[in-house]
Request: fold
Amino acid sequence: MIKKTILFPLALLLVSLSYTASYGQEDVEGSEDHSMISRYEGSVIKGYEHVDYDRIQFPSGFEKGSLEIDKVEGEVTKILYAAPEGLSVFQVQRNYQIALKDAGFEIVYECFGGMDEIPRAIYTDEAYSPGWLGTGRPSWTHGDDASYFLARLPGEDGDIYVSAHTLLSDKYDGRPATALQVLEEKPMDTGKVEVEIDSEAMKEDIEESGSVRIYGIHFDTDKATIKGKSESTLAEIANLLEQQSDLNLRVVGHTDATGSLEYNMDLSMQRAEAVVEFLTSNHGISADRLTPHGVGPLAPVASNQDEEGRARNRRVELVKIVE
Reply:
């Protein structure tokens, strides 16, 4: 992703992990600056959290008394900084914004001026919260002159979001504390949990509704090549057909909505054909009993707006053929 190639200007001075602030406090153990954006010069890391994949709800606007929220998923880094004494919230926030703009980010939303002049919902757990970040109580969010902004950098592999929530924190003797959040959009690594469905369960679903959804058949990305871990599920389909000699099935391939309709229609058909080929070649099922179809993204069972929904839409369905 583009994150590795962005060089931020010297408005924010890059510091090393071993950096000790001028007032003699060290970064919390195991923390580090994000590789893409540094701290405000002289700040110390008070809290840190990094996860490979998560979701953040970023406040992104305020219309007619209602806070607008962008729900974004990807790699997440959260860093809580305490800045030196004598700085204002505006001074810290504006330095971050200038550096981000110079690197190509757009400021999606900002609100300066303190709790009495900006939407209070920004600072509630329900709408947005940068979290405790291991700081314990009292919360670092207690203080004055709280401000927030959200910046976004579009990218071919996914957008990058940066938010900064800064206030004069009572916990840190009135020094500016900044919760910096960086989210880099990327696909979630799925397939880590398997749910086995046996031939008896397939039979019950088909008898009840005329079809059964199969999630245990996995393919290489953007291909119709069946992965080896799919074989146990395919063996159960073969068992079903062997036990039900009068059962004929439509094997229907489904995709998510990523990519063009034409591409997904073709891919889903290829995958359905691959399943039929596997069952006939490896398990001796008669090809006359299996009819492949591909419907691409035309029959979703969940929203394609997030990876969880897209994963549910990528499936194979077995539909009973009624003569």
Notes: The two ends are 52 Å apart (CA to CA). The chain has two domains: 2-185, 199-320. Confidence is low (pLDDT under 50) at residues 1-24.
